[in-house]
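Q: Is it fine to ask for two folds in a single conversation?
A: Yes, each is treated on its own. Send the first.
Q: Here.
A: Result:
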Amino acid sequence: MLSIRSTFQQPFSLIRLSLMLIVLTTLTVAASSQVPDANPFFARKNTFSVFGAYSNDSSHILLGNAENRKLLDIGAAYGRRLLVNRVVNWQFNGEILPVALESDILGQQSITQTQPTSKTSGPFPIGQVLSCAIVTTPYSYTVPNPTSGGTTTYSGYFTQSCSGREWTIGEAISPVGMQWNFRPRHALQPFFIGHGGYMYTTRPIPLANAGSFNFTFDLGAGIELYRSRNKSVRAEYRYHHISNHETAYENPGIDNGVFQVTYSFGR
């Protein structure tokens, strides 16, 4: 026969046991929530990207001399992680540009004769020119005059200026490139990037005596924002250079400041 004390002890034992189970469950959940993430980095092993890039002007930034050239690129890229730690995510990066458009300025020339009579001819189209700066070139020559038996001197000047532009279709590939993302534990990461490659166009650029085959390289920096572990967007600015490395009669080179937006995904 149970005593009154035993009758009251059983419910209290059950309550103590329940409380102990609740405490153990809480501690277990708290401990598991403190276990570090197996992948604490925003750093994909393989990255695939699509991008668009544009430059509205060119000038002598570093190596190029052709002015007022525009670039419009649409392409894709592949990246492979080489090294990642708390400081940097170092990646191989290669790009292919099935659409690489370049726009040259076109020139015109007028002829102003001052001797023996005054008259102006033109303007006449002269194709691609190096810049839009107005260039005046004097001329003077003497020819025999069969009427008088003496000579006649002709003199005046040529005036060159720009008039309109034309776009040239091309393709490009940059098979060698590197990208360095910093702060890889954070979703917002600054980065540096650089490539080397070549570009082929359907006609010579940036001048008629330059080549259709050109070498390219770029160096840039920007910000990459990870929307998730696998997806991100990048915005960057690059110094971009095009030249034929003296493989054609003329090699003025093109320096552009290019703005690029990239969408990336992968694992």
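Q: Second one now.
A: Result:
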Amino acid sequence: MSSDRVIIDYFTDILCVWAWISQRRIDELKAQFGDRVEIRSQFIDVFGDTATKIETQWGERGGYEGFAVHVASVAEPYDLAPVSPRIWTETRPTSSGIAHLFVKAAELAYDADTAKGLALRLRHAFFVDAVDISDVDVLEGLAGDLDLEVDVIRRGVRDGNAMAALLGDYRRATSLGVKGSPVFLMNENRQMLYGNVGYRVLQANVEELLRRPATEASWC
């Protein structure tokens, strides 16, 4: 008897270009495997303080402009993950944290699928439209574009529940040793795929787990 479903804990930062690129691989997994794959989206703090990150990691390599060149070169081979030349040169979000918080509030107010749709809309707004998604007014406008009730989302932010959920994601990432974005965790956290993982690698891992007997014991 084989397993009937694979659960993937998927950790990303919403401002990470590799997560933007990986979105198409997530879409393909769902298209190919349908309900046999469950993607549990969670956040990790990579761009929580972008000014400090750029200063410490890119200060001697051109700062924001150097990082913008890097992001453009990373995305250039991927036609389905376009990036605007204005990101990081003109549009410089101060933090990914507020966008993460907003998505977690939407998840609490609605459901996981709604939150995933909002997260994708925010990613598209930043990477393609060069919109500053660290601006609360912008976030509320984008949520409104999806016909989400902004007042309901605000409630989850105000009462602290969204913050508790977000910090839960961050703590879980730390406890599992997740140190970057994106990360795919499978097989009850025994398998970790990190970074620019090709679709065929993801596919092979999922197919192997689906074929594996559900009662198979772990080796010592």
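Q: Anything structural to flag on that second result?
A: Two points. Strands lie at 6-12, 37-43, 183-186, 191-194. The two ends are 22 Å apart (CA to CA).
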